[in-house]
Amino acid sequence: MNTLTIENISVEAEGNSILEDCSLKVNEGDCIALLGPNGHGKSTLLNAIMGSPRYKVTKGKISLNGEDILPLDASERSKKGIFMAFQNPPDVPGVVTMDFYRAAMNAHEEKPISLLRFYTAINKAYDEVGLDSSMASRHLNEGYSGGEKKRNEILQMLLLKPKIALLDEIDSGLDVDALNEIGNLIKKLHEEGTTFLIVSHYDKLYDMVEVNRTAVVVNGRIAKESDGQLAKRISREGYSFLEKEYGIKLEKKEKKPSDVSIGVCAVRQPLPPQGK
């Protein structure tokens, strides 16, 4: 059983407290809608689970199948089967997309995959996400449109086949056709055994992937949990009923780090002047 347990974690970024005593249990087979007003900690929770160095867990525990994963960096958590699709995927100049994919796949294997297996997998993945396979020779995400970057995130997920996938607004910037394709691929992976924790502001995606649970982040903690119907109600009515019916006040605004980081494997930073 692949169970991810978040126990009373508090998280800060650049000295700002964002999550406070936040707890959530993600069971194998779940497809969870992670909702909440803007700035209340949804992205922070996903980044803390993935191990982004920008987010510091100051209290609590995150465990996978009973193993504390807080001491592990993002790459080690990835090898344990956790994957995150970014809200704003960074450009990685100088890193050829194909080389990145092959390195990522090899990191999850006991021995390097054969070229035949790699090319078969990558061509199939490009076809499934609706991108031209010639993009594999370009630098990772550099010059890509917003929609292409989001498809590229799903492509990586198809190649790695994670146990638990964290999707941060994977549907933003997609047109209707792309949203349908992405939704179908998420549903396919879910049926094949991947557990999902999904942030989205659009109930259409939640309907497509058939979420079975809803968790609502308010003021830096999980304030309300229920089944998939809660996501639909929030889509219809907004969050105001939470205060009226449950006494949950909407106060906090999340301050996000200004720079983009994907951890130890690559960081988007300005290059030094030539000659230095």
Describe the protein's architecture and organization.
The protein is of the alpha/beta class. The protein contains nine helices and twelve strands. It has helices at 42-50, 74-79, 97-107, 115-129, 146-160, 176-191, 203-209, 229-237, 240-246, and strands spanning 4-13, 16-26, 31-35, 56-64, 67-68, 82-85, 92-96, 139-140, 164-168, 195-199, 213-218, 221-227. Strands 6-9-10-3-11-12 form a six-stranded mixed β-sheet, sandwiched between helices. A four-stranded antiparallel β-sheet has the order 2-1-4-5, covered by helices on one side. A two-stranded antiparallel sheet has the order 7-8. Strand 9, helix 6 (176-191) and strand 10 form a beta-alpha-beta unit. The radius of gyration is 19 Å and the shape is globular. The termini are far apart. The model is unreliable at 258-276 (pLDDT under 50).
